[in-house]
Amino acid sequence: MDAVHEIVDFINEYLWYLVIGVLVFAGLLLTGWSKFVQLRLIGEMFRVITEKPLIMENGKKGISSFKAFTISAASRVGTGNIAGVAIAITLGGPGAIFWMWLMAIVGSATAFVESTLGQLYKVQDKDSYRGGPAYYMTQGLNAKWMGVLFAVIITVTYGLVFNSVQANSIADSVSTALDNDSDTVFITVGVVVAVLTALVIFGGIRRIGAVTQVLVPAMALSYIGLGLLVVVMNISEVPAMFRLVFESAFGLREAAGGTVGAAIMWGIRRGLFSNEAGMGSVPNAASTAAVSHPVKQGLVQALGVYFDTLIICSMTAFIILLADPAFGEREGAALTQNALSLQFGEWAVQYLAVVIFILAFSSVLGNYYYGEANVEFLTQSKTVLQSFRLAVVLCVFLGSIGSLSLVWDLADMTMGVMALLNLAAVIPLSAIAMRLLKHYLAQRREGFNPVFTRDDMPDLKGVECWDPTAPELQHARKQ
Known about the structure:
Layout: H1 2-33, H2 37-40, H3 42-48, H4 65-76, H5 79-92, H6 95-120, E1 123-124, E2 129-130, H7 133-140, H8 144-178, H9 183-201, H10 207-233, H11 238-249, H12 260-275, H13 282-286, H14 294-323, H15 332-344, H16 347-378, H17 382-401, H18 404-445, H19 471-478
């Protein structure tokens, strides 16, 4: 196992220099090209997220912008917000939080473009729409090989590796809550989570999924509330905390985690794991929405990056930094639990274990959906799908008993490869997204509800939906 860890760590050391370079290049390019769409249209983001969904061709009510937002949030909001931020602080120092914030703002432009493209190149499904990078690679770039490769990578990354990370954080938080790090605890947690996962993804007990849809928003909001309470309780220390973050980000103050380079590296790595901007996962959720213009989901999912990183991740950072625990003594979720217990007492350790369990298990289900959707892009074989489900259950168990650092390093490696492949498609297709943005804003300036049909840009190839004769689009144009 140590040999595997060394190989993965070696690959990540060089891979992430490339990933960060491409992420920053893409984010800055798309920010400038769109004239800071992620900042100047924040008001529009809140307007479109509340719109009612269109009625689809089959007469059924489509998925709303807000529902698509919650689908992507279910995958985003998980251990990356709690354990991931803690790891960033442990390895990169408090300055990693600044770079996490900055990359979220820059990366929000990338999220806008990839989700707009996901909407444009979506296809009709049985009851809704489906799409994502595999589709805009195939239909927009006419590169089926690229779509197939991406579908394989996202299936492995989300269905297998990321689910191992979620399970690992669940086991780590339970071990901390019980103050027992024996193998028995980790194995027991692994078996329980694996069984629950199997019951859901094999269709045996759908009620669990329905319950988590209710509990996840409640847990997320309660966690935000607790973080704000920590800020209020330590209000006099808040200016010093922000000063520590900024000084550490630029190497003006030594902190655990060390150098500016470490702060940048870990801030971006953990930020990408949490908000997924540019990684190609969110367009899978964005494409499900029934909206009148592709740009609407681009704006909604750009807002999702802010919600994930600037709000929820910040809460974790504030909890840790205001408690001022010893960064090097604990890792991952245990660090956040320890910091919270210093503020509220031992009950907070158990509370956070419950929060992490619910958020992480929900992410397991969301990650599985991304994997299944791409398995079905590759093949309609039921045998392949069943094999994938078994592999997911196995990875959940192995993740629970695996090494914390190895599991996260594997996630970093597959996440980096996935982001590079997605951006290789997003950058050349971004010109189309900019045309769509211009088309959208022109209608807004005239006071219309923006509507897009294939006839508006007849030169675009591979666009299957957006039929100009579709009743729902004709009705939307009259609004």
